Amino acid sequence: MSDAADDEPTQAHGAPPAPAKPRTSEAVWTGVKDAFAPAYRFLDIVGGHLILVARAFKWLPRRPFRAQNYLDAAEFIGFGSLSIVLLVGLSTGMVLSLQSVNAFRAFGLETFAGGTTGKALALELAPVLTSLMLAGRAGSGIATELGTMRITEQIDALESMAVNPIQFLILPRIVAAMIVAPILALLAFVIGMFGAYISAILIEHVDYGQWWANLLDIVKPQDVLQGVIKSVFFGFVVAVVGCYQGFHASGGGRGVGIGTTRAVVIASVTILIMDYFLSDILLTLMPTVRSGP
To answer: What are the helix (H) ranges across 60-170?
Structure first.
């Protein structure tokens, strides 16, 4: 009994001390940092993209130009995405024309379906859907390719050979995307109107003369120009986001997969958000509908 009694104070004396309570100021500062952490990460990502763009375009007027890199990037982004862009454009034009004809038919105005379809395709659907397809196909491919080169130290090997990886890998992809994206959007508009013609004239038997006259009256050249201008910015976004996520990939194959997913998601969301602001600016600069008499 005496031995057990003697052990009790020893155990109490050897117990670990209770953790000190954090100060109120430290707790408040930690809470503030946690609350603003998403905003900080957002600004960090935006800043990283802007720095990458500045570093890339700094090399634009410098030699060597390596024209073959630009051609290879244009072939991968443009020609590789051509089939899916044309398919999406054709199906979109047919479906939109079908719905427009059936909606206008209740008022006897089905011949206006061509104009409304052309207006929607030229201003919004052709550039936006084309860019989303590029984000899913070309943007993910760019992120995967550059991410694989990063984790396998191929980018480090370029630097060891005195080849700047920004100039060699990133700048050609950005420039090529800004060139081929409006071309693909224009092709999507053309093939979309062909689908609208099939749906309205050949299937729904809308009068061709009035359908064509309303199309020419409603769709103006500045409508198509606005879509082309938007596509330049959208192609820029797809290439920059894909290059950034791939160039800064880490963590092996899992990191490459995460970067690829982020490239598609960030580019797609950015395109949809940017579309509103570009539309507002372009409609102010190039109004497509005359106001007043």
So the answer is: 67-77, 82-105, 113-120, 126-134, 140-151, 154-160, 165
Q: Are 253 and 150 in contact, with CB atoms under 8 Å apart?
A: no
Distances (CA, A) of 40 to 31, 32, 114, 267, 268: 14, 12, 47, 19, 21
**Cβ-proximal residues to 247 (8 Å cutoff; 6+ apart), any chain:** 52, 146, 147, 150, 155, 165, 169, 170
CA of residue 243 relative to chain centroid, distance: 12
Task: Write the CB contacts of 233 (distance below 8 Å, at least 6 apart in sequence).
Answer: 274, 278
Burial of 185-194, coded b for 16+ CB within 10 Å and e otherwise, reads: bbbbbbbbbe
- CA-CA distance, 88 to 131, in Å (whole number)? 11
**What mean pLDDT, rounded, does the chain reach?**
87
- CA angle 177-183-189, nearest 5°? 130
CA 223 – CA 215 distance, rounded (Å): 12
The tens digit of pLDDT for each residue in 188-205 reads 999 999 999 999 999 998
Peptide bond into 64 cis (omega under 30): yes
